[in-house]
Amino acid sequence: MGSKSKAIAVIGNVQADLVLRPVAALPPPGEERFVDDVSFRPGGSGGVTGMVLAAAGAPVRVFGTLGKDPIGSVIRSMLAEVGVQTSDIREIDLPTSITVALEAAERERSFLTSRGHMDAFSKNDLADEALTAPITLLTGFFTTPALQADVPALAAEARGNGSIVLFDSGSDQFGWSDTVRETLFSVLKECDCFLPNEAELLALTGGGDVIDALARLRQHFDGALVVKMGAKGCFISASADSAPVEIRLNPVEAPDTTGAGDSFNAGFALGLSRGFDWVRSAHLGTALASEILRRPASRRYLSPEDLNKLEVSPGEVSRAIDGPKRGSSL
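and the corresponding structure tokens:
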């Protein structure tokens, strides 16, 4: 792979992750259970994406905050060790937010997150140059409430500066109200690419499946849509006028999948920064995330040398599929 890349700005939630597995269910009140594995590492969509990009040698800056406490200091040090420029991550006099991820092979992951410092992250915490990179990823929308109202304007400013603007909202734990949907549609009007997972896309649009959701979304958004679909791979609709494409995966044995979508975002943004189109960037995102899932919990990233060896697996094939046409009825 070539090494020349445009600069990337990641703006979003940076926090701590504590991943416990296997946890099929919480113990009864007053009782204790042992788990086999515990991993403490940088988390949040912004933190994971920035860490993966920096470790791979990409020209990235991460704009966010951490709490003024020992946990924040440890996470800052862990990010700096892999090359993140932590001076852009401002310190807030609040406890550092922590997500506890509970994983088990027989069920979907679940998360418990403390609000902490992320409640206060706002546009005032962003450096002046945060919106000037050629590639900008806005992420962690639902975990940064003080920033939400300003996200459309931030996206518009970055776009006005010539940036390709990517948006990953994350999931709304309060139920995707009509107000939330309208807010997200207003953000998307200022963005070039939307990066939801399958569940988020269906919840936002009310679609019964991805094709139905795409038709509904196209009434509000003409840009690129890249849907992360877990073990199934990903789905790309480059524009309202192009046929959707699927990238399928060979199975990856990965008991710890926390941060996989953010690793995909990192690979995708890196592809764009190297001049790849949407589909080729999604191939890189898929390959990079799959390889990271094979890594131990203590090293959820690739070095520049690892990245240079990375190849798209033969199992990752693009397939054009029938999609909605412009103006199709719902």
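(Above: one complete record from the training split.) Residues 278-293 form the longest helix (16 residues).
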